Amino acid sequence: MRTLLAITKALADQNRIRIIAALHSSGELCVCQIQELLGLAASSTSKHLSILAQAGILTVRKDGRWAHYRIADREEIPQEAAPIVEWVCSQSASEKVVLQDRKNLDAISAISREELCQRQAKGIRCCSSAPETPVAAK
Amino acid sequence: MRTLLAITKALADQNRIRIIAALHSSGELCVCQIQELLGLAASSTSKHLSILAQAGILTVRKDGRWAHYRIADREEIPQEAAPIVEWVCSQSASEKVVLQDRKNLDAISAISREELCQRQAKGIRCCSSAPETPVAAK
DNA sequence: CCTATGTTTCGCTAATTGGCGAAATGAAGG
DNA sequence: CCTTCATTTCGCCAATTAGCGAAACATAGG
Predict the structure, then answer these.
(1) Which terminal residue of chain A, N or C, has fewer Cβ atoms less than 10 Å from its own Cβ?
(2) Residue A30 or residue A119, greater confidence
(3) Residue of B102, B98, B104, B52 whose CA lies nearest to B78
């Protein structure tokens, strides 16, 4: 019952549904991208992600300083939870917030993963959040 | 989003999952039977049932003083929630609490609906709860 | 009308949860 | 080592929620 409740509780929050919907359309996102999307503090974002991961709905791929989250593969998800996750994705797809999120994601993830790697190599910040100082201003 | 969240929040509670599982195997139960099953106060039981009904997962059939709850039919359930309800039923079916509940239900609903009507006609209490005084003791 | 009884609503309290900022952690890179 | 920065953990407060008993409602039957 613990596992089952962990799943249903994980889905009982608007921000966590937004996270799932975003990952469903984007495939993979790093914490700071999700943070920017939701407009929450880093700690709150991390908490939501850990609740979803704890429930087995998400998995992490750690890559240097970055943590990339994505929806877990069918086989990784416990207690045959895949159907419920897909259900949430399809039901949330038409929600106003989620549609707006998708637009915002286009801007947020305009910086592709490859570019991110280059920026990382150059020592530039991950997200456009944080200080408003672009490269030149340094 | 309000509807979607109402559904996921309704499912994010152990007692409400027990209610759904019980109704899934019994078909229909009155409030006091559910109250006896969960061991909660009448007011708490009623609250849980109203949360589930509000989310569109349950429907009520009022019959005299009694209120009989059951899982809503496919067409009545909003936002194509039927799959998620069935998922909860199948996932909870193997849970220890739910298995025990089913045994307890046998005892609780040993008094069949027909018998209940007769008892009602005779002015006997609905449930074995309340005063411990059987018919003869009156 | 009065009583009895099943259910619901209303306050209230305790527990849980979501949010934040500060501090801790971990990984690069000088 | 020391700094930087993405992430996580911790401690705290505010909002939500589950639980109860008391009171209110509703219905059936003297």
Answers:
(1) C
(2) A30
(3) B52
pLDDT at A123 over 80: no
- Spatial strand order in the sheet of B29-30: B29-30, B66-71, B58-63
Query: Which domain CATH number covers A48?
Result: 1.10.10.10
Strand C contacted by B67 CB (< 7 A): yes
Cα–Cα distance between A17 and A8 in angstroms, integer? 11
Indicate whether A116 belongs to any domain.
yes
The protein footprint on chain C, as nucleotides within 7 A of a CB, is 5-11, 17-23, 26-30
Interval B66-87: pLDDT, tens? 999 999 998 888 878 899 999 9
d(CA B91, CA A57): 16
Residue A135: inside a domain:
no
Q: How many domains in chain B?
A: 1
What residues contact A108, with CB distance under 8 A and at least 6 apart?
A33, A36, A37, A127, A128
| pLDDT score for B79 | 73
Q: Is the pLDDT of residue A109 over 80?
A: no
In terms of Cα–Cα distance, which of B93, B114, B111 is closest to B102?
Answer: B93
- Record: contact B4-A12, CB cut-off 8 A: no
Describe chain A by its helix, strand, coil percentages, rounded to 5: 60, 10, 30
Q: Is residue B79 part of a domain?
A: yes
Higher pLDDT, A120 or A22: A22
Q: Which residue has the higher pLDDT, A8 or B116?
A: A8
Look at residue B132 and tell me if it is in a domain: no
pLDDT band at A81 (very low <50, low <70, confident <90, very high): confident
Q: Which residues of B touch A12 (CB under 8 A)?
A: 5, 8-9, 11-12
Task: Please answer whether residues A21 and A15 qualify as being in contact, where contact means their C-beta atoms are separated by less than 8 angstroms.
Answer: no
